[in-house]
Amino acid sequence: MSLVTSCKNLIQLTLEGCIRVTDESLKAVGESCIRDLNLGEGGCYLITDLGLEYLADGDLKNCLQHLNLAECNQISDSGIIFLKSMAALTELSLSECGVHVTNYAIADVLSHLSNIEILDLSWLINVTDISLLAIGSKCVKLQKILLTGCEAISAEGLRSFSGHQTLKRLELFSCYNFSWEDVESVALTCTKLEYLELMKRIKTPTPEFSFGYLQIQHNHCGIDWDEDSEFLFW
């Protein structure tokens, strides 16, 4: 708290592995103009919904562009909902935030965050097609979305990205409830798409695994199958 209040020009703060960072710590952060805040991937397990409310209450909501909450598994829909006031966000990670983050908050929040370019929802098992329908229609600047481990999504959710004008990267490892036909129908309409991650065990027979790319107009889209198969980089 002392660091944040005394360093008026601070724009980036990484607290990975800081196990004693609590909601009270985020009071000062919420009053700052930090643009890049990393609370994820290894340690900020004491952050709760109250901490997210503190972040959204102050000037931070008008400045913050990158927010990493990966593995902050004490947060829930009640806290996530405060993020919709952070209109400047371009990058958000909620990876492994646990079972209490669901479609209710994801769809609502991302309907308000039209500037999002990078979104990581990996291993959120309660994310379904409802979330993807909101993301596909509202996040018009989206370039990269990570959905690894979101096993509940199906063809309906995947097809919500059909015709997306900015999407470059789509990661779908550990997702099985759609077919190669669904993947192809989406990929061929996303003219900026450069990279796909897929499982061999999706519903219908896939092309030969040496088939490591799709031709989309004049562009190649690389395909990375799961770890047991070959990836060709184009």
Task: Provide structural commentary.
- The protein has 8 helices and 10 strands.
- It is α/β, with parallel strands linked by helices.
- The protein folds into 2 domains: 1-124, Leucine-rich repeat, LRR (right-handed beta-alpha superhelix) (Alpha-Beta Horseshoe), CATH 3.80.10.10; 154-234, no CATH class.
- Strand 2, helix 3 (49-57) and strand 3 (66-68) form a beta-alpha-beta unit.
- The longest helix is centred in the middle third of the chain and has 10 residues, at 129-138.
- It is elongated.
Q: Tags for this entry?
A:
about 230 residues; alpha/beta; Leucine-rich repeat, LRR (right-handed beta-alpha superhelix); 2 domains; 8 helices; about 25% helix; elongated; disordered C terminus
Number of β-strand runs:
10
User: Major β-sheet, in short?
Assistant: 10 strands, mixed
The residue ranges in which pLDDT falls below 50 over 5 or more consecutive positions are 228-234
Helix content, binned percent:
10-25%
Give a quick precis of the structure:
The protein has 234 residues and is of the alpha/beta class. The chain contains eight helices and ten strands.
Secondary structure layout:
Layout: H1 2-6, E1 12-14, H2 25-30, E2 36-38, H3 49-57, E3 66-68, H4 77-80, E4 91-93, H5 103-110, E5 118-120, H6 129-138, E6 144-146, H7 155-158, E7 169-171, H8 180-187, E8 195-197, E9 213-216, E10 219-224
Parallel strand pairs: 1-2, 2-3, 3-4, 4-5, 5-6, 6-7, 7-8, 8-10
Antiparallel strand pairs: 9-10
Helix pairs in contact: 5-6
InterPro entries: Leu-rich_rpt, Leu-rich_rpt_Cys-con_subtyp, LRR_dom_sf
GO cellular component, one term: SCF ubiquitin ligase complex
GO biological process, one term: SCF-dependent proteasomal ubiquitin-dependent protein catabolic process
